[in-house]
Design a protein that fits this description.
The chain is an alpha/beta fold and 464 residues long. The protein has helices at residues 8-16, 35-43, 48-52, 59-62, 115-130, 139-148, 165-180, 194-203, 225-230, 248-251, 270-279, 304-309, 315-321, 338-348, 358-366, 372-386, 394-400, 403-412, 417-435, 440-447, 451-460; strands at 22-25, 30-33, 79-85, 88-99, 102-112, 184-187, 212-216, 256-260, 281-283, 289-291, 295-300, 324-327, 355-356, 391-392. The protein is built from 21 helices and 14 strands. One of its GO terms (molecular function) is ATP binding.
Length: 464
């Protein structure tokens, strides 16, 4: 618990944004209700004072339709249950809380918080089935995640790794952004984690139960941007889908839309986005106006004021987007986080890697990381798969850096003759083993050493 950094208020804020969360003890007494559950039980006829003072009350008196009691069995398996209450049809998961064989209580929370999510999920199942493209052992979880990525967790604030002052300040600003419910402009270099920050803001905001729609403005062909963002009516152009099609802003209603690389938005689309921000309505191609309640989070790795000055981005749109600015610090400004990030990445690699040597870590600290966390993770990933021992070493890292950086590091340090000899010996062993397909007898013969001596040198140099 010494590494636990969240305050009680932050914990409460996170729990309040888990849709339909109910926690009871082994006697069926309520220990916690999320904010939306308190509102639901009030609509069931429970008095406001009783709803606000739910602690210690029997769950059946607070919410008579709750099915969480079915999980009060230490041998019970997690169940998905459907419910219908106060005009809401949804699906929830319930399961017991068991520690050291003792039943402590049960948990209940939404996985599909309303009938719209259920319809989306069933439509995707039907579509996959019709295309004969549904593997029930693999795809159901994938489809479930796709539905929930609209309104629940993709990245959370806990996924922002780091203990530096820069990251602590970033997390504080993310909480401020989440509470404000206004447009946010995220500034950061490539690979710093702008998408992660946007998702974190959404997840702890009051829109957390709504959809989170992500758009990369640079990835959409210019002639399709308008229809993709704002949708179209039936017959509005050749090839238009029957019945029309909603745009991303409609799909994001009551939630958040994330416009990544917003600087790539074509000039003729920028006034339309400005209108959405000002009037809270979109114009489908074909003329239909539709009101939307959407929070916009935009991100860029460019200097938007410079683009405004050069006439490549509208000044009025810039000020509408830049109500709150969130800057993501580059990795070179938070180098004290490199070890934590490296150790985290190594744990995710599907190979038996025990760690990284001090020399290799020194190179990671000295490098400037123009590609930031994305580049760091890429280098660690490749180094791990190509290293021959159980630890990532200096040479493994150096081989993954750009050629000009290898020369730069090579000119900084004068190695001892012993170190140079050891390095040459290590490379010779690697080449011999590779040449003879791992046959140690042939490799030892080619190197002019005994087989046992080869084993000793392999162990010394961490060579498998």
């Amino acid at each position: 618990m010494s590494n636990f950094k969240l305050t009680l208020a932050e914990c409460r804020q996170i729990l309040d944004h888990i849709s339909g969360l109910v926690v009871i003890d082994a006697q069926g007494k309520v220990r916690f209700l999320s904010k939306d559950m308190v509102e639901r039980v009030q609509q069931l006829g429970v008095s406001k004072s009783e709803a606000d003072n739910y602690y210690g009350k029997d769950i059946q008196k607070i919410n008579p339709v709750s099915k969480i009691g079915n999980a009060l069995d230490k041998d019970a398996k997690p169940q998905i249950v459907f419910y219908q209450t106060v005009g809401i049809t949804g699906a929830a998961v319930i399961y017991p809380i068991v520690e050291k064989g003792e039943l402590l209580g049960a948990v209940d929370y939404d996985v599909l918080p309303n009938d719209a999510y259920i319809r989306i999920f069933l439509d995707m199942v039907a579509e996959r089935s019709l295309n004969h493209d549904l593997d029930f052992e693999i795809d159901i979880e994938e489809l479930f995640n796709k539905v929930n990525s609209g309104g629940n967790v993709k990245y959370r604030i806990q996924d922002i790794l780091g203990e530096s002052e820069a990251i602590k300040k970033l997390k504080q600003r993310i909480y401020i952004c989440a509470d404000a419910d206004t447009t946010v402009l995220i500034n950061g270099e490539t690979g710093t984690g702008k998408e992660l920050a946007a998702n974190a803001i959404h997840h702890i905001s009051k829109r957390a139960n709504g959809p989170m729609i992500e758009i990369n403005c640079a990835a959409i062909p210019e002639n399709l941007v308008e229809s993709e963002l704002f949708g179209y009516e039936e017959g509005s152009f050749t090839g238009a889908q029957k019945g029309g099609r909603p745009g991303k802003f409609e799909l994001a209603d009551k939630g958040t839309i994330f416009l990544d690389e917003v600087d790539q938005l074509p000039m003729h689309i920028q006034p339309k986005l400005l209108r959405v921000l000002q009037e809270k309505e979109i114009d489908r191609i074909g003329g239909k106006k539709i009101g939307v309640d959407v929070r916009v989070i935009a991100a860029t790795n460019k200097n938007l004021p410079e683009l405004v000055k050069d006439g490549r981005f509208r000044e009025d749109l810039f000020y509408r987007l830049n109500v709150i600015e969130l800057r993501i610090p580059p990795l070179r400004e938070r180098k004290e986080d490199i070890r934590l990030l490296t150790e985290h990445k190594i744990k995710t690699i599907d190979k038996d890697i025990k760690g990284i040597t001090k020399g290799a870590m020194k190179i990671l600290y000295n490098y400037s990381w123009p590609g930031n966390i994305r580049e760091l993770f890429n280098v660690i990933d490749r180094s791990a798969y190509f290293c021959s021992g159980d630890r990532i070493e200096e040479d493994d890292i150096m081989e993954m850096l750009p050629q000009e950086k290898r020369k730069e590091y090579g000119s900084r340090e004068i190695k001892s003759l012993e170190a140079v000899r050891d390095e040459a010996e290590k490379q010779a062993i690697k080449r011999a083993l590779e040449l003879y397909g791992g046959n140690k007898s042939k490799a030892a013969q080619a190197l002019g050493v005994t087989r046992s001596n080869l084993y000793h040198k392999m162990k010394k140099n961490h060579i498998e």
